[in-house]
């Protein structure tokens, strides 16, 4: 028996057999129906309105969800509905999959909301004398899945939690396998997660609503580890020379994060008990320090990390102040110093789906370059130092309110600060503009010498660029520039073979591409081919927090990426010295 | 191309295609080849001798294992061997699956050794500059499996452990999914586990070698919880009336177990660091107390437990002094008070594979009866009290050395004690013999009155049976007898419809079946149909420790068992009162 299904809301018509599941037919029609609980009739997100046709009686579960979601009596869950007649139906907007965009600037890469943490509101059956099932059995039978992992102390609280609200409870499930939390009553609207970018210099934490995918608040701060050295290499040395420094490094980043989390929660009026997962993107050294792992193998050739991919860790083991059974997922490392910040960036960019040859450059204290040549991926890292983030410079500062992030030469020097606050210093993107302007004005020579007599170029009030500041920038730029030139040469590519350059960094909100080319940070290429994508490490962490598909993808992708050790290359030193000159290049 | 494979050791001949895997063909021939590592070339347990035919060069892994196992150069791993020619081969005895028998008395039920804990000795590749893989990647690539769970503190120790013995390490893997431990060098011969039976009165712990399946040592002791009451109901009351008693109950059993474990390890000259798993069988209340779970729901109708099945727990969470990342698997409960000791017994007996109608009776402080009627299973429990274990009786004692476990009437009363030590008291099996003898002699009337003037029947030196002792036994026997009669009646069966009765208990080494019938503990049935199987709870724990298949089987089986609540049955009280008389019955 064949039936005709009319989907009025989408103006589609299709054929179905008796007993076909309606949800499957809707998917076949190419409509992105939300199947959050994987067709288990648990979440109530796939209600459709039956306008004409068979309207079977509501079962207990469906009826509970219908009331909860406040739908009319002619709505049914598409995942439980077996077709028995011709149908005409409407799919309401809120039964469609939500997409969200994780990159705030650059290219739009939509991701489908499907976080590892899911909440279900359930009305449990009370056990009966005839079949005195256990409380856990009653819970798992509602969850349509047996054999969850469940922390022992949660099991101890189970009877009291169920009693508190007449066996109605919200279950927080991790990766379909673990019951992380049980909350009396309906707490569906409190489901939060954190996207964290641990940079060597800058740390960014963002609080997201896992149900809507929306960002609720964000914080930027300096990594307190800076007291152990401003770059990765000096922190590694500090920890290998004196073992207690490893503990100090772990404490510093943990404290940095916990203070930021507290501020975010206050700002969003949320409780840490409703933050169930944090996704952490950081370079290899940063994630090792955060986990408290010894980094001796990162300090000597062949610079092996302890781990590449890990299963989610326990937040309380790591001292992260979120839910007591909360999880921390560390974005997988690639190889050696090319870490999780870069793999996160590749996810944010959807780099593996872009057709052609691309460079992806992340300008952090540790600078990384990924070359995509056709289907091949090669990655390298280079120690740029913290200059791009405004550190170690007399006039520099992080990209915080009051930082000059943009400068233009009109009649006189025109500067713009973050949040239009009075200028406090210059962040990375501002420094690039200033270098380009002063180079053009001749105040700085191509060799990097300040030609002004005082050897200080004033910028605003007490803020000025010194000779030492220029030298720091010069070294940082040369590290990136020589890396780009060498990786292209060794893979038989010229600048013009590139279909695009993605530039990332946590160093400001805006990057002037032309100025970057003028000072030689970027190769001279059609300007439209260069896209500044901002903090792609944070964006990737966001994607991986919101989408299990993104998580699976990066775990597979990291294994395909080859490592290209710059420092081991015989040409590197020569390329580096050549790159110290501020000048445009295109070969 | 077809090849002929001659298996000389088993006198079999079969045909194979090019590139068929030799291990698969050997299995097809019905030979139980050991495939401990699931054909990953890791364990070296499937070496066969190639007598004639293609002898491919040894790869690195095979060569390492060949040296380790000290085989000749013409041996190859059957799981890695792809057939390229006609072959003649010998399968050595030690490449065949080991079977073991878990029940020490009664019926032989062989199980195949395949524990959840497996050890592999591995020689890791050191990372190279060209591809600086992480240490964890190197390890997982040898294990032929990515994405193991690994405790954070083990990850922290990984670099040091690998360095200690030139990257040669023994990995302890749990359920193919978790790296529990990493030990420098080769520690394959140290792989131990515990089978634990927590009875209300008696606790038995056995140390087993997980590689050979052999029992190394066993200990019996009294459950120290006895100070909170001698039966399940009084302990539950104690813990619900005064919450700190729950903690006390947990401590008592933990201490009982830890002291027993210490003794076992001393006796076997083993270290707790090499004990990776404990399997615990106990009735519902016992496993709840051991886990520290509140038992309020067990104290009121419908007597629901908190859990039925659980994933393995962390031994250190439970305070069990074995390996710091050791696991504790709790044998699943059935329903209400019918707990893991009974499901363990069903596994030990292989009850679901026996054809026909059977009773399985476990005579503990909590007595349980399982009726298998065709393919149906029904279970019930009845409070027998600790008399069968010799407790609460003036002359009673646990089944420990010095306990009278057997008595016969020849010219005069002849008693036998455990280990032939001087008599200290009487254990359960001895009490049954004595009751039958004194009943026959008329020293006790069918109503249970001692007819001897002194109201004391002397047994040995200072040991005598008192009127109170007889009453305790009378109540215990009536609890079982009324349960048996009621469950048979309600399921339309008569005693003669039974194909067998399995009788279990931790109350002695030997049970006189005829005497059990004389006093009415067992129905009068062809004596050969009654099989005493000893401590089947411990035997089941042993099976589940040694065999993952047994574990999967019981998890499925417990869901199929219906509960038959005795006390809720209107006939129960009448049956109980009738059952107080000592007499043979057969209806």
Defining traits:
Ubiquitin-like (UB roll); alpha/beta; Nucleotidyltransferase, domain 5; elongated; homodimer; 587 residues; six-stranded mixed sheet
Structural description of this entry:
Two copies of one chain form a homodimer. In chain A, helix 9 (340-349) packs across helix 13, helix 9 packs across helix 14 and helix 11 (467-490) crosses helix 15 (572-578). The first copy, chain A, is elongated and about 90 Å long. By secondary structure, chain A is α/β, with parallel strands linked by helices. In chain A, 50% of the residues are buried. A six-stranded mixed β-sheet of chain A has the order 13-12-11-14-16-15, sandwiched between helices. Among the domains of chain A are: 2-95, Ubiquitin-like (UB roll) (Roll), CATH 3.10.20.30; 99-184, Roll (Ubiquitin-like (UB roll)), CATH 3.10.20.880; 192-330, Domain of unknown function (DUF4445) (Nucleotidyltransferase, domain 5), CATH 3.30.420.480. The first copy, chain A, has 15 helices and 27 strands. Chains A and B meet through helix 3, helix 4, strand 15 and strand 27 of A and helix 3, helix 4 and strand 15 of B.
